[in-house]
Amino acid sequence: MARAQVMSSFWRGVRDGIPFLMVIAPFGTLFGVIATEAGLNVFETLGFSVVVIAGAAQFTAIQLMSENTPVVVVLVSALAVNLRMAMYSASITPHLGPLPLWKRAFVAYFLVDQTYAGAALEYEKRPDMGLAEKFSYFMGIAMPICPPWYVFTLLGAYVGEAIPAELGLDFALPIAFIAMIAPALRTGAHRAAALTATLAALGCAWLPWNLGLIVAALAGMVVGAEVERRTQR
């Protein structure tokens, strides 16, 4: 019975992850196209996605690298974009933290925006899930998201400039983030952080090397933390 419940959780995760393919497909293809246009070969482009597996950070790094930005700035910018992963990790640790080390390694590697959003909502909706079921669900939702990311990156690298610009693939990133972030803005601290980061990013767009993203991320976190502190008091 327990094994059946674990497998049921896995396939439920797969089912819940399939709709994300509508974002992963154009987004991964677009990255493959942009990476090859920036000078990476097919192997380097695929390796980038396999090793980093963080779309927003990958796009940021490729853009800065194509502008001959200093390596330190590229790394700091990519890390700033991925600071949200630290918050994802802290949020999901109460659910998956007791797992063995090798399983936590899989969770850490596959912890991206879509897997976190889906898993967090599922754990909240089903508080009675056991540890094995939670891990099984997480791996299930990762299957239609992460491996296809590699496949579509490879497809984009091969297709390259044959994809017409009017397809508007560059809209995949903002649409994906809006769809995932908007429902999660449940508290005043969340909304304050999002609004502050948005305004700061727009106001600092003139800064070179995408430094406005770093400023916006830091400003959003500071304001969100302060609003939460005052609310709790």
Topology (SSEs and partners):
Elements: H1 2-17, H2 21-37, H3 42-52, H4 55-66, H5 71-81, H6 83-96, H7 101-110, H8 113-125, H9 131-142, H10 146-159, H11 172-181, H12 188-203, H13 211-232
Helix pairs in contact: 1-9, 2-4, 2-10, 2-11, 3-10, 4-5, 5-13, 6-8, 7-9, 8-9, 12-13
Question: How is this structure best described in words?
Answer:
Pfam families: AzlC. The chain crosses the membrane at residues 20-40, 46-64, 71-92, 135-160, 167-185, 205-225. Keywords: Cell membrane, Membrane, Transmembrane, Transmembrane helix, Transport. It is found in: Cell membrane. The structure is a single chain. The protein is mainly alpha-helical. Helices cover 76% and strands 0% of the residues. It folds into two domains: 2-169, no CATH class; 185-233, no CATH class. The longest helix has 22 residues, at 211-232. The radius of gyration is 19 Å and the shape is globular. The mean pLDDT is 84.
What proportion strand? under 5%
Total domain units: 2
Count of DSSP-assigned helices? 13
Identify low-pLDDT runs: none
Range of helix content: over 70%
Averaging pLDDT over every residue, what do you get? 84
Number of strands: 0
Largest sheet: none
Along the chain, the helix and strand elements come as HHHHHHHHHHHHH
- Coarse structural class: mainly alpha
What radius of gyration results from the CA coordinates? 19 Å
The shape is globular
From the N-terminal CA to the C-terminal CA, the straight-line distance is 46 Å
Protein name: Inner membrane protein YgaZ
InterPro entries: Brnchd-chn_aa_trnsp_permease
Main location: membrane
Subcellular location: Cell membrane
